[in-house]
Amino acid sequence: MKICCIGAGYVGGPTMAMIAARCPDIPVTVVDVNEARIAAWNSEELPIYEPGLDAIVRTARGRNLFFSTDVDGAIRDADMIFVSVNTPSKTYGIGAGRAADLTNVELCARRIAAVAEGDKIVVEKSTLPVRTAESLQRILRANGSGHRFEVLSNPEFLAEGTAIADLERPDRVLIGGESTPSGHAAVQRLVDIYARWVPRERILTASVWSSELSKLVSNALLAQRVSSVNALSALCEATGADVEEVAAAAGRDSRIGHRFLNASVGFGGSCFQKDILNLVYLCEHYDLDEVAAYWTQVVEINDWQKQRFVRRMIRTMFNTIAGKRIAVLGFAFKKDTDDARESPAIDVCRALLAEHAELAIFDPKVSAEAIRAALRQAAGLPEAELDRRVVCGPDVYSAADGAHALAVLTEWEEFRHLDFVEIHDRMKKPAFAFDGRNILPHDALRALGFEVHAIGKPAVPRDLLPVQPDAAALTAGGARLSPRS
Ligand code: UDX
Ligand code: ADP
């Protein structure tokens, strides 16, 4: 058995490294059209940041893990081909902004059909809308020269930042295949690979279609939780409740559970928004308009949460931030990754720039070039204007120099333990801190003189709040104040 993976990105790279590390007897070749990326995979400086990845790559690289730009050669040699290319949302034509752009996947299928010299198992690993396997199958069968192609769906559930742990001890591995004898045999070959390190009861098999849809549904349900708690964060701010206390209490109910209830400036990443919009598109296709509208709302609450954060900043800073320097702490869509795709930071920074603010951005892992590229595309500012108004600092302290406010947009651990005395000294007064991830030590900051605004928390500490809602007045109107159980 030989494996090849087309696409050496956040999914393909770590997944193949794990398979190679756990199956030393199986040669695994990862190919990509991007030469610089492949060169980086072959160097000491890997192209993506992921805790634990270096060690896994070091174990297997050169032994049975190879990175190459020879796409055709790798396809020809392999029995099993993972397709792990990017599937961004379409930016043009029908379904623009919502449907997935399958150009890369289709190119891979046509390449496989063109160069295959024997039977192949093709595994779709990219997040793909429902029924893509069917399209893959048709392209392969229509263009192949008589070889058998079995198409499997093996969606990736790893989250960035915890990819290696997720791959090592997954909650489940899902494999979808066709209900034919050759389909079952192909599924079994992939099951046997994962079974080398994943307990068998965690490996689920399903039809191709169920497998594809499960991926979209998992992400939609997770994103829905974040949007639910973010919507409630606004109610907490309005009423003086603390969203962390509310989420901790509700999350103690084991049926609800505590995960994905951290209120934030909004969710981001390459999957959540894209997958929900795919789901919406699919619902619309089947004339399920109410279902489509329901899931659209999860994305809309996310957009609203980002705008709400910016509006709060502006209102707090005397209704103008023009010409004011704002130190932006964090640009990645979450901690422990250098990925800024669909990061809430992009929308927040764009809105701040539209208000003529000046930004000093620091992220421990996202490079200055990546930040500038994201903002260049999002803000639509002339290059000179971008140069003048955005600096990417080497650390938080220089970003804070002369800043009117801090805005925490990513929950990096190191932001919890900064020298806030020095930061306060360097800032203009009053010094504002807007915590979009609820990770700063709020009481300590207030003691230093910061004015702190956090997500879903009263702007003023609770013991200083002027009036609590009048219980008698509320119950007189028929409302219940105390929970029923
Ligand atoms: C997600 C899915 O979790 C994973 O299973 C799938 O395969 C790919 O998409 P990922 O995009 O890496 O993974 O990140 P995830 O940890 O799910 O977080 C997504 C976004 O939600 C991040 O921006 C994160 O900061 C935000 N989030 C998450 C919150 O705001 N609050 C939470 O409580 C959890
Ligand atoms: P993901 O998060 O899904 O892994 P990435 O963008 O990180 O997405 O990685 C996808 C990779 O797939 C990129 O490195 C890109 O160059 C590669 N790729 C896209 N299309 C093709 C193709 N037709 N042949 C080979 N590699 C491709």
Quick description:
The chain is an alpha/beta fold. Helix content is 45%, strand content 13%. The N and C termini lie far apart (58 Å).
3D structure, described in words:
The chain is of the alpha/beta class. The protein folds into two domains: 3-198, NAD(P)-binding Rossmann-like Domain (Rossmann fold, 3-Layer(aba) Sandwich); 220-464, Rossmann fold. The protein is 45% helix and 13% strand. It contains 19 helices and 14 strands. It has helices at residues 12-22, 35-41, 53-60, 71-77, 103-115, 132-143, 163-168, 181-194, 208-239, 243-251, 272-285, 289-316, 344-354, 368-379, 383-389, 396-400, 420-426, 442-448, 471-476, and strands at residues 3-6, 28-31, 65-68, 80-83, 120-124, 149-153, 173-177, 203-207, 325-329, 358-362, 390-392, 405-408, 432-435, 451-454. The strands form three sheets. A six-stranded parallel sheet has the order 3-2-1-4-5-6, sandwiched between helices. Helix 13 crosses helix 14. The N and C termini lie far apart (58 Å). Residues 467-485 have low confidence and may be disordered. The structure holds uridine-5'-diphosphate-xylopyranose and adenosine-5'-diphosphate. Residues 6-12, 32-34, 37, 71, 84-86, 104, 107-108, 126, 270 line the site of adenosine-5'-diphosphate. Uridine-5'-diphosphate-xylopyranose binds next to helix 9.
Helix content: 40-55%
Question: What class do helices, strands and sheet pairing give?
Answer: alpha/beta
Strand order of the largest sheet: 3-2-1-4-5-6
Largest sheet: 6 strands, parallel
Question: What's the CATH topology name of the largest domain?
Answer: Rossmann fold
The distinct bound ligands, ions and cofactors come out as: uridine-5'-diphosphate-xylopyranose, adenosine-5'-diphosphate
The share of residues in extended strands comes to 5-15%
Number of strands: 14
CATH architecture of the largest domain: 3-Layer(aba) Sandwich
What is the CA-CA span between the terminal residues?
58 Å
User: Mean of residue pLDDT?
Assistant: 92
CATH homologous superfamily designation of the largest domain:
NAD(P)-binding Rossmann-like Domain
Report the principal-axis shape: globular
Tell me the count of domains: 2
Number of helices: 19
